[in-house]
């Protein structure tokens, strides 16, 4: 049987992680995988998460199973974080999943079960694991224009033109905020236009929100999914806790199926719980429980908010410092878009050869499509990167 296996395509983000690890240069700079790093280059456990973990260790008296869809307390806390009071509890079916990716996978399986012919529309470009999972599941997919390579902003006209070819019942995958890999995001009024468009064309939004709090703030970053939840008959949301709670390896995420009609929720709930059972039975609990503790304890929540805000503003400062350094070196405003992008990533617009040159000459690692992780920078590496960008002729 094993002889029949074929090598699978390598994930470009994960291969880059391995290449970085093997590079012996001490001054190498990792701008690859989307993991937050502080000025010392570490990915610390957030203070409130550590405090919750300590409390949990003292108070947890069983490791017995939770519910098949996870802990309802986690659903409530995350529903409030992502959707605030835009919907009522009885409009949302929810299932905890192993990370945001797990929630995406479960959401796609729900779509395949309910609407096997629906096409999944993906932004061009998108996180490479989106098309990879969809292809693996054998589901039809299509692309809509999203990133304007000239302005490095959103090609909103192109987006709506392409989505005009979608058929009623098709699903549109949207990044809730902090678009990965580009850093270019819809404005509030564009979200409103998208909502109007989707409803008119009877398209179903599936929002992947993995960086809430990394862009313009927790509430501003959730504007899109909240507006959609208020206006669309139904939608799916995959929320990740990996980045904004820093619990990457714990795998904490939540799938939500939102319906205007609360009568639909019991069936939706039964379905997401069933899908959990088929794929892994009970979802991981540790990370989800820490997140719930942080969100429901006033002191822990306040501390988490303060730390998250520090992370967010730190990335904004790095963006501005890099844009300024490039302004100085190029005597132009060509790279100002870096300061305007939001979230962890920006797509620089370099060719693969230029990305490779930066890696060879300066030990700078970014994804081959020139996505760079802003949080991988610090005061020392910003000038190195700016020099490398200019030397590569980007
Ligand atoms: C990324 O885009 O770098 C992260 O979401 C990590 C991953 O799993 O690819």
Report on the structure:
- With 394 residues, the protein is α/β, with parallel strands linked by helices.
- Strands 2-8-7-6-5-3-4 form a seven-stranded mixed β-sheet, sandwiched between helices. Strands 1-10 form a two-stranded parallel ribbon.
- It has 15 helices and eleven strands.
- Helix 14 (352-362) packs across helix 15 (381-391).
- It is globular, with a radius of gyration of 21 Å.
- The protein starts with 11 loop residues before the first helix and ends with a helix.
- The structure holds (2S)-2-hydroxybutanedioic acid (LMR).
Main attributes?
globular; 2 domains; seven-stranded mixed beta sheet; Aspartate Aminotransferase, domain 2; alpha/beta; 394 residues; two-stranded parallel ribbon; Aspartate Aminotransferase, domain 1; binds (2S)-2-hydroxybutanedioic acid
- Domain module count: 2
Question: Would you tell me the structural class of the helices and strands?
Answer: alpha/beta
Order of helices and strands: HEHHEHEHEHEHEHHEEHHHHEHEEH
Strand content: 5-15%
CATH architecture label name of the largest domain: 3-Layer(aba) Sandwich
Estimate percent helicity: 40-55%
Number of strands: 11
The strand order across the widest sheet is 2-8-7-6-5-3-4
Number of helices: 15
Instruction: Give the C-level CATH assignment of the largest domain.
Output: Alpha Beta
Sequence stretches where pLDDT stays below 50 over 5 or more residues = none
- Largest sheet geometry: 7 strands, mixed
């Amino acid at each position: 049987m094993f002889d029949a296996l074929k090598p699978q395509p390598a994930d470009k983000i994960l291969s880059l992680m391995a290449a970085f690890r093997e590079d012996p240069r001490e001054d190498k700079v990792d701008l690859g995988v989307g993991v937050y790093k502080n000025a010392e280059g570490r990915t610390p456990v957030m203070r409130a998460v550590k405090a919750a973990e300590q409390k949990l260790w003292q108070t947890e008296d069983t490791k017995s199973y939770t519910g098949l869809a996870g802990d309802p307390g986690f659903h409530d806390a995350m529903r409030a974080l992502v959707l605030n009071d835009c919907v009522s509890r009885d409009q949302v079916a929810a299932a905890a999943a192993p990370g945001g990716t797990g929630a995406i996978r479960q959401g796609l399986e729900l779509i395949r079960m309910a609407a096997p012919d629906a096409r999944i529309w993906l932004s061009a470009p998108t996180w490479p694991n989106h098309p990879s999972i969809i292809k693996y599941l054998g589901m039809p997919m299509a692309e809509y224009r999203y990133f304007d390579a000239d302005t490095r902003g959103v090609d909103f006209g192109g987006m709506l033109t392409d989505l005009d070819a979608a058929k009623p019942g098709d699903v549109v995958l949207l990044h809730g905020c902090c678009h990965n890999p580009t850093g270019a995001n819809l404005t509030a009024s564009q979200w409103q236009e998208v909502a109007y468009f989707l409803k008119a064309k009877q398209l179903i939004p599936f929002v992947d929100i993995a960086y809430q709090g990394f862009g313009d703030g927790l509430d501003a970053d959730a504007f899109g999914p909240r507006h959609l939840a208020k206006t669309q008959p139904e939608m799916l949301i995959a929320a990740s806790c990996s980045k904004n709670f820093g619990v990457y390896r714990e795998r904490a995420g939540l799938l939500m199926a939102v319906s205007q009609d609360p009568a639909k929720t019991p069936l939706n709930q039964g379905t997401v719980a069933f899908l959990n059972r088929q794929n892994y039975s009970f979802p991981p609990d540790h990370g989800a429980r820490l997140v719930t503790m942080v969100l429901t304890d006033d002191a822990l929540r306040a501390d988490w908010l303060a730390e998250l805000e520090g992370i967010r503003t730190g990335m904004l400062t790095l963006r501005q410092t890099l844009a300024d350094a490039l302004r100085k070196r190029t005597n132009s405003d060509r790279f100002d878009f870096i300061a305007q992008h939001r979230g962890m990533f920006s797509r620089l617009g370099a060719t693969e050869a230029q990305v490779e040159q930066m890696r060879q000459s300066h030990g700078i690692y970014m994804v081959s499509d020139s996505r760079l992780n802003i949080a991988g920078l610090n005061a020392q590496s910003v000038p190195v990167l700016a020099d490398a960008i200019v030397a590569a002729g980007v």
